[in-house]
Amino acid sequence: MANLTPISSWTTDDARHLARRAGFGISPEGAVALQAANGGDPVATVNAWVDGTGLDATVFNAALGSADPVTEPGADASGTAGSVDVAPTPGPHRYLVGGTDTWRNSLGRGQAYLAFRMQYDPYAFSQRMALFFHNLFATGWTKVNNLSLMLNQWDMLVAHGRDVFTDLLVQVSKDPAMCFWLDSVRNNAAGTRTPNENYAREVMELYSLGVDNGYNQADITNLAIGLAGWSFVVDPADVVTNPTNPDDQWVARGTFAIYDGSPATAGFKRWDLNDLGANLPNMRRPAAIDFLGGSFPASATQGEDAVRSIPVKRPAGQPPNCATFLATRLLRTFVTTQFTAQDVTDVATMIDVAGYDLRAIMKTLLASSYFYANRFALVEGPVSWAVRAARALGYALPTSGSPDASRFPAWALVSGNFADMSQKLLDPNGPNGWKEDVYWLNSNTMRYRTRLAAAVALQETYSTDLGDGNKQYTLFPTDVEAWFPTPPATPNEVFSRLVDLIQPAPIPPGVQALWLDALFPSDGSGNPRLNGASWAAGNAQDRQAARSLAFLVLCSPSGQLY
Questions:
Q1: What is the pLDDT of residue 500?
Q2: Which of 213, 227, 320, 428 has minimal Cβ neighbours within 10 Å of its Cβ?
Q3: CA 550 to chain CA mean position, Å
Q4: So where are the chain's domains?
Q5: How far apart are CA 358 and CA 364, in angstroms?
Q6: What pLDDT digit, counting tens, does each position of 29-60 carry?
Q7: Is 312 buried (19+), middle (13-18) or exposed (0-12) by CB count in 10 A?
């Protein structure tokens, strides 16, 4: 059974485990402070971690305006050449990519923006939950074809990913990107029209219950009727135009609306940018529906009421089907894939008792003995793995003042690696998202993990051809000196510090010995080349060897686990 009893004490290694799974890693010094916080009480610290207590995002928010250091030629509304930055402030994305080039719709830039947020947001748990729900409620840029709506959906997941799951399910159902992705915008059941069932099917099959788990085709059809007309309208101020092509227009954000023939909000447009006229088109069927054993009369809230009933569906003597579904997904992402049916039931019962309150659920799970008994039991997903590596070896944001953008990773130049590593951020192949754990690893994906590890650890550079004078960028700026606050006096000290930074699963002693023998060979007297004096003297070979060792740790089998 899953032991959900909270731990009463914990170690620094336990604190690191929390930060890896429920964030994107932590520095060795940060782990010591985390373990000692709240008088060493792990439950209080987990609660604060989930709630984001005591965090200051001032510097982080200031950094968003220069998050992407990679420039390219562009034009603002007046036709003046300019450079592209990422959205300068959090919240609704009025700019597709931000800066002056509001019309750009670059997936790579959006991926870079989110990687930056995951790497530097002091409230790492909110970004981690958004990444989890991005996989659960998988929505793809290729079909939506609107980066701004995709980023707005991410913001919604950040804002509501710790709410009651039932409320989040409603938020997702009303999200403009989701309305495009699963064709809610085309769900017209007026009169005798056949409703579009795509979202009605997937909200149960993929998002809340699981395949054929307590519903039938009649439930799908009736829910589709109840959700007919769910779409969004657009404020003209949120329509942006390509300054070089006035016919190229994009929606920066939308407002949920039900197309039921009621008077349109003055000045709004339809999602397809056509003027509304006097009324929203009527796509509703004014009839009661039967759904999951309940009856829902025709009303403005019919669709929402039906969606809210999904988590209530309960087999006799068992937790609700939705609680079992959610328990399985949470275990696969945050704990282990090697769970038993009883483990799932135990977690599902906890979810049911918590009333689907995700804050309470995650506080219980992340403080449980079950969570800490499954250290290094999962293969880390590509995006998390890449962000954690950059966070471990790269520069941190300052605690105050203006951040130095020259120290930011050039995520826009490596974001294509996410797809190569089989997790194309913001653009999954289908609504079922990505498989996890061992499915992340094969000979091809490891090849691209190795490439990214080299970029992070070995100070690799890249020359662009973007009309910016063929500018050369350091992909991941790092300072090998900063990795070692205390100068290492032996190869073993180099290894120990890098393990503290990168936090792989235990590396076999024999492998460690082989690496150190190869990278720090003995001198003619049989002594290791590295010693305190050589490091203090600034020996370049020592520093390059340390970088190579970091690369090996990142590429090792142990380096893929978390």
A1: 98
A2: 213
A3: 25
A4: 164-313, 480-560
A5: 10
A6: 999 999 999 999 999 999 999 999 999 999 99
A7: middle
